[in-house]
């Protein structure tokens, strides 16, 4: 078995890959000119005898399958073998292998057995075209291009630019859309799947009138077809992602991170992981402080998926969280007197009596130099540079300049001498 068709992987489980079927009739592929040009260069390199691994990444609904089909058609026009079950086909023809979401066909996480199976083909022209969603598939797939002339190419499919999106709608309708319809179509934000389903849904419910020169909107409302599509998209998401998406939508097209944290009751680190997942799908975008729905139509659909009573309750919860008084940081209580040992307490008492260094030295039986050393250590411990400040920081009252009585000029405040050791 040699190839896989993009988006039609319906082969028996033992083979895990199907043949490239003949091309069905397609409308033109709009808005992917640059991406197709890069794929063409890779195919031309392979046609000249090289080996290439082309990875195509895009969120669900971005048109990966359609893009793969176009690449396969291009490869066949360049002479590639894409559909023989018997060996590798003619030795002088390049080979194309197409895999859509190959991680779905692996036996173990991160394994892509088909790529490994075809790695020995590296001495002959080979292009491996692998499409996957962002964040899935083996992170180290590139080294599987093992031939000496191998190279890699990474193509990312984003949303369509507005002119290309309107051209897609015109192709589907058979006429350019009128201004009111243009406004509705722009709500799809260039998301290919939403755009196509919107046009098909409007046509199914007869909300359009298509003339020879223009397609007009009869009634501006979201077709049921899109609501079904959204339910399918939501069911594909993990519970945490679905929860975040619906809460964020109810709070508005833009919401603050604080509001989301209040309602979801999760730590910021947990919210970060879920947001990363949703940003990779293109459903949400994150600014400096706000979370936003880039796609207006998707936002409206998600809001409508939440019952009205729950919408009201969620909005009240967010409002209550904003109005709740925030805890005020209280100033730290003033530090008490520093913890002094017995000798230090005795020196502070003598300073309070107004003695000089020499007098304190005689009283304590030590040298004036030692007294000076102890005073410097006390200044450092209390963060002061004067005797008056030392007394204040160690819990003594300010000196009384008017006291004529001999003896201590100040007295300790309660607790100033507690905790000190004996000399």
TrEMBL record:
Cross-referenced Gene3D superfamilies: Winged helix-like DNA-binding domain superfamily/Winged helix DNA-binding domain
One GO biological process term: regulation of DNA-templated transcription
GO molecular function terms listed in the Swiss-Prot or TrEMBL record: DNA binding
Keywords assigned by UniProt, alphabetized: DNA-binding, Transcription, Transcription regulation
Pfam families associated with the record: GerE
SUPFAM superfamilies: C-terminal effector domain of the bipartite response regulators
Entry-linked InterPro entries: Sig_transdc_resp-reg_C-effctor, Tscrpt_reg_LuxR_C, WH-like_DNA-bd_sf
Domain of life, source organism: Bacteria
Feature: compositional bias, Pro residues: 328-337
Disordered as annotated region, ranges: 1-25, 317-343, 393-423
HTH luxR-type domain span: 333-398
PANTHER family found in the cross-reference section: DNA-BINDING TRANSCRIPTIONAL ACTIVATOR DEVR_DOSR (PTHR44688:SF16)
Protein name (database record): HTH luxR-type domain-containing protein
Provenance organism: Streptomyces violaceoruber
Lineage: Bacteria, Bacillati, Actinomycetota, Actinomycetes, Kitasatosporales
